[in-house]
Structures are given as C-alpha cells and as structure tokens.
Amino acid sequence: MSTVTFVHIGDTHLHQHARQADRLRALDQIISENEFRADLGAWLWPGDLFHCRSTIDDRNALKDRVKRMANRAPVVICYGNHDLAGDLDIFGDLASVWPILVVARPQVLSITLATGRLASIFVVPYPNEAGLVSQGVAPGEMVATARHALEAVFVDAAAQLETARQRGELTLMIGHVNVAGSITSPGQPNIGKEIEIDEALLARLGDIYKGLNHIHRAQRIAGAWYPGSLCRLDWAEIEPKGYLRVECGDVPLGWQVYHCLIDVAPMHHVEGVLSRDGFTYEYPDKPASWQGCEVRVRARFNQSEKAMLEFAKAHILAEFAEASRFELELVAVPDTALRAPAVAAAQTLTDKVVAWAGEASVPLPDGVLTLIAALEHADPETLTAAERAAAEAVLEPPVVVKPYDASIWPLTEDGGLKSIAGVRVAL
Q1: φ, ψ dihedrals at 143, nearest 5°
Q2: Max alpha carbon distance in the chain (Å)?
Q3: Span of 39-43, 188-192, 293-297, 356-360 with lowest mean pLDDT
Q4: Per the domain annotation, does 357 fall within a domain?
Q5: Residues 139 and 236 grouped into a single domain
C-alpha cells in the first residue's frame, strides 16, 4: 500500500480583524506547501473557519482558496461552534475537480481520495446544545445527557468504520469538539464547562487517526490530535503555530503525524514596573531585537503616581518601538499614599469623614455628621421631599403681611411704599 497524506487545518476564525491578514497568509502557506504533493489524499478542515457571522469579504477570501484546494483533492469541512448555521454551505456549491463536503450533523462519509483509494471518514460537527434543549433536556443536565447521546453516535460510527476497514478502505475521524482534560493556550485545562468527549468514546473507533479542532493549543490527548489555531488569534497564544500532515503508510508504520510549523511572528509577554524613574522589567527570553515581534506589556504602577504616567510611558514606547504589533496594559496598584490609614480603616461614611477631618485638621461644620447619617440611613423619598420643599422656599419665599409703620416702611417721594421682596404692607 502506498502512502496517503491528509492535511489537517486548524481553527481559522476569519473575520474583519487586525489579524485577518495573518490568518490568510497562514492558510496560503499550508496550501502552497501541500497542493503539489503526489500522495495528497484530502484536506481536512473540522470547523471554526469563521469567527462569527461571515461577511461577503470573508466568504470571498475563502472561496478562491477552497476552490484551489478542491482542484487538487477532496476538501472535508464540518461546522465548529463559531460557524453560524448555513455559513459554510456555500462552499459545497463551488465547481471544482474534487468534491467539497460540508457536514452539519455527525455522519460517516465514504469518499474517493485524490490518490484513487477509498476512505470512510467519521465527521463530528460541534455538538449543538440548542438541539438538546429543543428535545426538553434541562440545562443542568446538558453535559451528562450529551455524553449519553454521543455514545450512541460513536457506537454506530465505529460499526460503520469497521465494515469499511473490512472492505479495504482507509478509516479516520475528524470533528470539532472538546476532549476532557485538553489544555488551552493560557495553560489551563478545560473542566466540564461544555459538551465534551473522553478517551473511552474515542477508543471505540479503534486505532485510527482522530483529528480535532476547537482547542487552539496543539496537543495530543486521549489518542486524538489538535493542530491548534493556524496563527496567533489573540495575545494568549504564545505557543508555536502549525498544521498537521498525516500520513498513512504500510503496516507496521500505520499513521504518522507531523506538526508542520507556520511562519508567524514571535510573541512576547513582558511584565514590569512603571515609575517616575522609567520602566523596569526582567525578561529572560528577551530577543536580540524586538523588530518583527508581537509584544504585550503589562506595567504595574502606584496609583498615587498616576499624574506622571504620560511622561513615564515614553520609556516603554521607546523600548518596544520596533515591535510589529504592540499593546500596553497599565495596572494600578493601590498604595498608602492615596489615603491615610485611619481613613482607609474606617468602616462607615461618617467614620471616614471624622477620620479625614482629624488627619487634615479641618473642623467639621455643625450638622454635617447628622446630614451624612441621614444620607446613609434615611428614607430616600422622605429626603427628596424635604429637599424639594427647601428649594421651593428659596425660589418662592412666603409673602408676609404686616401693618404700616412709617419707621419701618418709609414712603417714597411720590407717596408709594418702597418695594421689599416677599412682603406686602397693609395700609
């Protein structure tokens, strides 16, 4: 049996974004490195081609590339959790030498590879929670119910794959799903927060290639392979990026999987302290030059020194001026210069005002503490009514009627009374 090669492409997440060009450039590298391989059997692309509802520009960007791939070998695509319903179907309608198969529900496909061999591929799109909810499954029972439903799907697929193997076909599996225990780019494991599969389910399929998308960090887990995202999709993805070239050769070689690196800019996270003296950091992986690198700087500073930050930030900008992409994250650190300890320790607003007055040597006017207590504890509607009455008294003072007294209300030269606001004099 001659060797057959499959090219497994990871999460792409195309959308109008600053890194859109990076995504397309990475995809072009994958295509150019593999389209002329004599042993190419098929392209495998299990989901998250798009990041959200695709635009015309997104679809056009992929259309010519998918057609270029399909003119060389079959393309097998399934829906990921970011691919919205119907968004990928357009690619299945493209005219090409080899078929473009877009899968929206779990099934086993039988296809003829570009090498002429037959293959059966078990394809698992992202398990849709909405489908389970529509069947009356309570959200709290989602994970357990999904595991039971997926087991039935895997048992049936395993039987179909075994039948295909007996016919002499190549058998493999691709899907867009989380495997329990997989590690994300920040280094944290996924812990039961979504529908997932486990080693027991995967083992039902036998010793075949199982290629998955969804986790952006390349890894092998429970007998399945993740190629990871094909370029850096956000600042957490500092690991190397690539795709998987999967070769099925003669026994006993079996399946051979190679992680092929994609040319992406180096990414660095730099932590440091920003002060009036400049920016100080320690970074053991510092390159000889920041030129062409993506750099995110997280700088801590004392909150009391915030006024001088604009001047101090110039030190950071100068240090990383050659970076191809740069992001600065400032993190304020509360320090004792902001508040006196007595003020910080006070538990109520009244206590804080008293503590502040003592620290500042400022006498408190009469009634201030009573007013503060009222603001804290009195009924808001009562306070509002009282304030409104006080305001009305100022704006429209009451009219006072008093008998005429020449010593108090002298007449004007024309015999009239001098006008005094708010007072009416009875003659």
Answers
A1: -65, -45
A2: 128
A3: 188-192
A4: no
A5: yes
Domain residues for 143?
A: 4-261
Pair (47, 133) in one structural domain? yes
The two structure tokens encoding residue 292: 């062409």
Report pLDDT digits (tens) over 39-78.
Answer: 999 999 999 999 999 999 999 999 999 999 999 999 999 9
Q: Which of 261, 293, 318 is the last residue of a domain?
A: 261
Please report whether residue 376 resides in a domain: no
Question: How many domains, the chain?
Answer: 3
> If residue 389 lies in a helix (H) or strand (E), which one and from where to where?
helix 380-395
Is 0.85 topped by the overall pTM?
no
What is the C-alpha to C-alpha distance for residues 147 and 152, in angstroms, rounded to an integer?
A: 9
In the numeric block, the tokens 């304020």 are attached to 332
Same domain? For 210 and 294 the reply is no
Do residue 235 and residue 290 come from a single domain?
Answer: no
Per-residue pLDDT of 232-290, as tens digits, reads 998 889 899 999 999 998 655 589 999 999 999 999 999 999 888 888 999 988 999 99
The DSSP bridge pattern shows strands 242-248 and 224-226 to be unpaired
Does residue 248 form part of some domain? yes
- What value does the mean pLDDT of the chain take? 86
Closest CA to 172 of 209, 123, 223, 226: 209
What digits encode the pLDDT tens for the residues 143-185? Answer: 667 888 889 999 999 999 999 999 999 999 999 999 999 999 8
Radius of gyration of the chain from its Cα atoms, rounded to whole angstroms = 36
- Token readout for 193 is 């927060």
Tell me the per-residue pLDDT of 394-427, one tens digit each, with 9 for 90 and over: 565 555 555 555 555 555 555 555 455 445 444 4
Same domain? 198 vs 52: yes
pLDDT at residue 191 is higher than 90:
no
Could you tell me the CATH number of the domain that includes residue 183? 3.60.21.10
Residue type, 367: G
Do 76 and 161 belong together in one domain?
Answer: yes
On whether the CB atoms of residues 203 and 238 are closer than 8 A, the answer is no
State the DSSP H helix or E strand holding residue 256, giving kind and residue range, or none if neither.
Answer: strand 255-261
Which residue has tokens 């849709």?
A: 128
What is the distance between the alpha carbons of residues 193 and 176, in angstroms, rounded to a whole number?
Answer: 16
Last residue of a domain, one of 197, 230, 261: 261
Q: 298 and 279, same structural domain? A: yes
**Contacts by 396-402, CB closer than 8 A, 24 or more apart:** 397/421, 397/422, 398/422, 399/423, 399/424, 400/424, 401/425, 401/426, 402/426
Nearest CA among 175, 257, 184 for reference residue 10:
175
Nearest to 328 by CA among 279, 266, 264, 285: 279
